[in-house]
Amino acid sequence: MRSHPARRFAFAGVGLVVMALGIAVMTLAGLGTSPISAPVWVATLAGGLTFGGWTLVLNALMFVAQLLILRRRFPATGWLQLPAALVFSSAIDLWMWVFGWIQPGHYALQALQVLVGAGLLGLGVAIQVAPDALYLPGEGLIATIAKVTRSPFARLKVVFDVTLVAAAVLMSFLFFGELRGLREGTVVAAFLVGTVVGVTMPAVRRTLAAVLGDGR
């Protein structure tokens, strides 16, 4: 058992909330959203549920997919994805409400907001991943497919993101007859978030070690 599990869960929970903040800030800029949120945002524009509500639906589908693939081999710790998804989805709706008044009037401000949002998302991912305590169903599904197919996680992550963006494009044309919800901000997020994760991870790990009090 890893040391201080409660602190690890709390640290990862902070990461989920920061991730949600990044997605909300980026999306409200009006230049698209992150690749993994692309189909969810298109569904939100079409109506029915909130951004967080559709996010929870997508995460639930990904969780069920893992159960169907692994069946009895599904790990007990995998059930922690459910509360993680609930916190993440609720936080998205919270931040969308808190910052819903933001309407940048100039493209330069929109672009800056996308960069800030992508930076926050990358930082949130680093905080969430570092404790190795909680993960979202999207990550769980990729890990499941990687395990079954014996394929590299990183390669499948790229395929997964591209598939989600393609699905969002298809949904957009089906719902609206034109492209909505995906713009240059989606492309920027695809490249920038991973870079921010790599840059911030050393500092995040040092912070985690201080929180755990183990000096690592």
UniProtKB/TrEMBL annotation:
Please report the name of this protein according to its UniProt entry: Uncharacterized membrane protein YczE
Q: Which UniProt keywords apply?
A: Membrane, Transmembrane, Transmembrane helix
Cite the PANTHER family for this sequence: INTEGRAL MEMBRANE PROTEIN (PTHR40078:SF1), INTEGRAL MEMBRANE PROTEIN-RELATED (PTHR40078)
Kindly give the InterPro entries that the UniProt entry links to this protein.
Answer: YczE/YyaS-like
**Signal sequence residues:** none
Looking at the UniProt entry, the stretches that span the membrane are 9-31, 51-70, 82-102, 114-137, 158-176, 188-208
